[in-house]
Amino acid sequence: MPPSQAHIAAKVLQGKWTTNIEGVAFRVLDLPPSCIEFVPLKGIEDASKSRPRVPGDQYFVVGTYDLQKEQDPVEVDVEDVSELQSPPKPQTRMGSLNLFRIRGNKELTLVERISYPSAILDLHFLPDRPTIFAVAGSTGDISLFEFAPNECNADIEGRGSFSLKLLGTCQVFKPSLLVLSFCWYPGTDHPDHPLLVATVSDGGAYLVRFDQTFQKFHVFWDGKPLWKHTDQAWCCAVPSLRPSRVFPYGIFTGGDDSEVILTYCTPHHLEEVPDELESVAYLKRQHTAGVTAILFLPLAPYTASIYRDMPIPGFFFLTGSYDDHIRLFVTEPERPRPARLLASLNIGGGGWRLKLLQDYGVEEHSRSGMKLRVLASCMFAGSKILELEGGEYDPAQPEAQTWTIKVVASMNVHQSMCYACDAQPWDPLVEGKLTYCNDHPGVNEKRLVVSTSFYDRLMCLWNFDPSLPQSENPVEHPTGDRFGTADISPEASKSSIDVNVQIKEEPSP
User: Given phi > 0 = left and psi -120 to 50 = alpha, else beta, which region is 324?
Assistant: First the structure.
């Protein structure tokens, strides 16, 4: 049993973090955390319906993963062989979804806990319908949930509460397969029938469409993969700029075979489905271990195209790898060669997940001194904030611009692998001085981050203050230095309901 929250609130943490980080709160979860994502502000607004959104109230969802190991062998009499002839029980996985609320950056409340019959490996909110999110399961399943109002649970101030509503669960793949990751395919003409790309433990990447009820699905190309890595496919990503029918628009996947595969897939292919798609080993020798994360940056590398409102689909993207390096590449779609490496950095741990620290908006081209910050889940190296900076930019020679990657903040109180962290969306309704940098609002404001670690089930909330001196080296904080002063709701006050999700295979539409 996890320790009581009263015990956790009184406890102190020992570890290292940089001086531009301030601890807020920490909590031990029921099961090991594997993924986390904040509810988009637009999702909170849509779910609030007639009520105005409460400034300072934000929510996030944590998915967990627990491997139920075989029971220890029982000693039996050697003459009684009947006990030994029964096969050992296979290992099973289970998980949960945990909905948390943060109020005013000082009050953390567990709103709801939902048990799940398989382990959860990934979760993401649907950009076009931000109250909806999907979770990837360890038994070939994908479930859809809604962040919905709970009218029966308003607080004493009349503010509505929220809960997680199951919309449907689809047995997309064989139960023996793990859905390792997924990403939503953006910009389709049918927002009521969302598409996602899923990578699976058989090494394949698949394109899946759901109907408007989220209870039926269709796997393109008769259930065949877009491409198969020779080992597990850990991650996938689709460039964030708008799809184009003129230029190739690709699906990128990374695998344990150390390769990044590009599959050319445009919206046209989704309407007039060809017999097969063209796939190429886009990055074959640039990584020395498995590719675990791919993050496209909201930046078109070379001006705007000759077509109005249609940027050339070359892209900047980051990769994380088991080889402990973060790498920045740029694609050059008008040239047949693979992506060009711009910068790399050894972060001391595998880059399992990479997320932009905030919404930067799409830039049509780079500029001198341009900066982007990225939140990295670095496994044994904890959580880090990276800063990408572009050098001198010449519009006549954009490809000559140099880039650097550096660590500007580091949090490592976690005693096991950090697989998931996320940053709280910047809230324009919260009072405070608004600052701009490179036309991005709030970029110099404090950012609240939630980071987690696996085996110790630890979840930490902390503030990153970009106005304080940057540092790559964390400072030792011995026992006795309190980690944060936030209020943590007592265990008895949470609204926790165990809901067993029934996984059923739904026929394709």
Answer: left
Sorted by sequence, the CB contacts under 8 Å of residue 216 that are 6+ apart come out as 170, 210, 506, 507, 508, 509
Q: Is 229 helix (H, G, I), strand (E, B) or coil?
A: coil
- 72-112 residue pLDDT tens: 444 434 334 334 344 445 558 899 999 999 988 878 899 99
Beta carbons of 290 and 322 less than 8 angstroms apart: yes
User: Do 242 and 298 meet the contact criterion of CB atoms below 8 Å apart?
Assistant: no
The CA dihedral of 250, 254, 255, 257, to the nearest 10 degrees, is 90
| Residue 268: φ, ψ to 5° | -60, -35
Q: What is the 3-state secondary structure (H, E, C) of 198-216?
A: EEECCCEEEEEEECCCCCC
Taking the C-alpha atoms of residue 160 and residue 294, their distance in angstroms, rounded to an integer, is 37
User: Phi/psi of residue 84, each to 5°?
Assistant: -85, -15
204-210 and 179-184 strand pairing = unpaired
Rounded Cα distance between 122 and 182, Å, is 7
Q: Is 421 exposed, middle or buried (0-12, 13-18, 19+ CB in 10 A)?
A: buried
| Tokens standing for residue 372 | 């982007």
C-alpha separations of 241 from 28, 237, 250, 335 in Å: 38, 12, 11, 19
Q: Which two three-digit tokens encode residue 168?
A: 């449907």
Q: What is the CB-side half-sphere exposure of residue 314 using CA atoms within 13 A?
A: 24
**E strands in 39-160:** 57-64, 66-68, 92-103, 107-116, 120-126, 129-137, 141-150
**pLDDT of 49:** 78
**Bridge partners for 66 per DSSP:** 94
Q: In degrees to the nearest 10, what's the CA dihedral of 358, 327, 393, 446?
A: 20
* pLDDT over 90 percentage in the chain: 45
CA dist., res. 59 & res. 71, Å (int): 37
Q: How far apart are CA 177 and CA 182, in angstroms?
A: 14
pLDDT digits (tens, 9 = 90+) for 216-252: 999 988 888 888 899 999 999 988 655 444 444 678 9
Characterize the bridge pairing of strands 179-184 and 161-171.
unpaired
Longest dimension (CA), the chain: 85
The continuous run of DSSP H or E covering 33 comes out as: strand 33-38
Q: What is the pLDDT of residue 245?
A: 40
